[in-house]
Write a sequence for this structure.
């Protein structure tokens, strides 16, 4: 009886200690627990623009992003203008990442001889791990000064009439490695409008997305819906489709769009092109980044 | 009765011993790599590697989060994660193996030992047999470890497009430094 007890005891003990050893052998690292880090979703878009719209991405901290954006003339001009290639509208801009959360930028567009500046702040960053956020939410504020000569210099013209402001919320998610989607509710304020039928404040909703076709190529689309009654009926909702091609330090964005302007107040509220009539531009944005301040170790 | 008692006292310590066998660990192992190619030299460091070793069995495991590698250029870091290491798919690189000559060590005394490591290295989701040497310095209950080795990136399915083949080395030099403490 005594002996049977002992054998039983030994067997249990052996099983317990054996199991303990086996467990150690299998997974030593699990003793240290999970890494306590927060991983932020990165590269939801290849640059900080979808096409015209600001994307979920900011310029990285300490990085200067020089952008040259170009829109040729309308495609429907035919062979006479070589499908619009004879005409061009340009914006030259510089964006800078003050930190990973704050980006500032400015630019100058040939369209309406307009200077613009923006500030963008990431309020929520999509992340997993210690801190879990399903979405990214950014706030954008822009201002633009149109510097065309006054149409009627004899009138009492005010400088404030040249000013435009835009407030935008960018909310979106990188759903997978290859698919990102964002919504951009926007308010455009114009100090002066051409006719009394037009609203000074225009509400709009932008939607933008991208699908990666390969590691270095993605298909981007954006559409901006402006509820009717706010603008002159000649203005149309902006629709753009294009590709992002990434080559080392450059990103080339090639696209078709019915918007001529490349800044918010313009492409949201002043797009006259019509996809149905071939009144669309071929255009490109070239982005080149320079590291100005290296991150500290 | 007496035999049972005897077995009990004999087995309990044996059991607890195996449970608390001497282990050393670090959560701040420094993993750096250098890629020296004709056009570009790329250096990156991750200061939060996990390393644990069991002195009783010689077992050693290490893991490092790919997204934790820091670069001088933000875009380089983005490309490293997105295009080369695919860190969304393969978040970690890890080594699981054994110090084959651990029986010759006595880490409780001061001394320097040459550890022979043998096991499996997993990078970019690909596991390959791997062996290298590492130096272990025991000093007053603490152990510091350092190792250097080279990794052929093609072995781990990391593709380098032709346009940048002069920017990225085929062999990447990896170095690891860790100060281990008792678990």
């Amino acid at each position: 009886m005594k002996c049977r007890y002992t054998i039983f005891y030994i067997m249990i003990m052996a099983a317990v200690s054996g199991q303990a050893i086996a467990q150690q052998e299998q997974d030593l690292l699990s003793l240290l627990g999970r890494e306590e880090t927060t991983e932020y979703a990165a590269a939801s878009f290849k640059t900080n623009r979808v096409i015209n719209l600001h994307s979920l991405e900011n310029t990285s901290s300490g990085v200067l992003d020089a952008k040259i954006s170009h829109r040729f003339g309308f495609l429907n001009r035919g062979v006479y203008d070589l499908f619009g290639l004879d005409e061009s509208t340009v914006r030259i801009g510089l964006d800078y990442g003050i930190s990973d959360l704050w980006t500032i930028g400015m630019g100058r567009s040939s369209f309406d001889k307009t200077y613009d500046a923006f500030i963008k702040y990431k309020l929520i960053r999509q992340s997993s791990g210690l801190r879990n956020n399903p979405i990214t939410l950014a706030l954008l504020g822009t201002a633009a000064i149109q510097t065309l000569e006054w149409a009627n210099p004899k009138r009492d013209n005010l400088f404030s009439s040249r000013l435009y402001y835009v407030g935008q919320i960018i909310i979106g998610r990188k759903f997978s490695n290859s698919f990102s989607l964002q919504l951009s509710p926007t308010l455009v304020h114009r100090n002066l409008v051409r006719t009394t039928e037009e609203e000074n404040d225009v509400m709009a909703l932008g939607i933008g997305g991208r699908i990666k076709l390969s590691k270095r190529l993605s298909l981007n689309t954006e559409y901006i819906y402006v509820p009717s009654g706010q603008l002159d009926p000649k203005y149309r909702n902006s629709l753009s489709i294009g590709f992002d091609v990434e080559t080392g330090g450059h990103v080339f964005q090639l696209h078709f769009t019915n918007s001529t302007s490349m800044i918010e107040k313009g492409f949201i509220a002043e797009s006259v092109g019509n996809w149905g009539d071939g009144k669309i531009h071929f255009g490109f944005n070239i982005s080149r980044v320079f590291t100005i301040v290296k991150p500290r170790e | 009765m007496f035999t049972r008692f005897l077995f009990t006292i004999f087995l309990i310590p044996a059991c607890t011993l195996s449970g608390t066998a001497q282990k050393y660990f670090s959560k701040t192992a420094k993993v750096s790599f250098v890629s020296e190619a004709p056009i570009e030299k790329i250096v990156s460091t991750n200061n939060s590697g996990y390393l644990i070793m069991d002195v009783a069995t010689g077992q050693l495991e290490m893991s490092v989060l790919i997204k934790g590698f820091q670069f001088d250029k933000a875009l380089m870091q983005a490309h490293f994660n997105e295009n080369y290491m695919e860190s969304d798919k393969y978040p970690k690189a890890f080594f699981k193996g054994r110090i084959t000559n651990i029986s010759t060590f006595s880490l409780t005394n001061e001394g320097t030992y040459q550890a022979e490591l043998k096991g499996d290295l997993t990078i970019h989701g690909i596991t390959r047999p791997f062996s290298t040497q590492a130096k272990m310095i025991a000093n007053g209950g603490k152990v510091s470890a350092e190792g250097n080795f080279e990794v052929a990136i093609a072995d781990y399915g990391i593709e380098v497009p032709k346009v940048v083949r002069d920017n990225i080395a085929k062999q990447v030099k990896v170095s690891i430094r860790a100060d281990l403490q008792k678990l």
User: Anything to note?
Assistant: The interface with chain B takes residues 2-3, 5-6, 9-10, 13, 16-17, 20-21, 24-25, 28-29, 31-32, 35, 37, 39, 42-43, 60-63, 97, 177, 215-216, 247-249, 289, 291, 294-295, 297 of chain A (CB under 8 Å). Residues 77 and 83 of chain A are 5 Å apart (CA to CA).
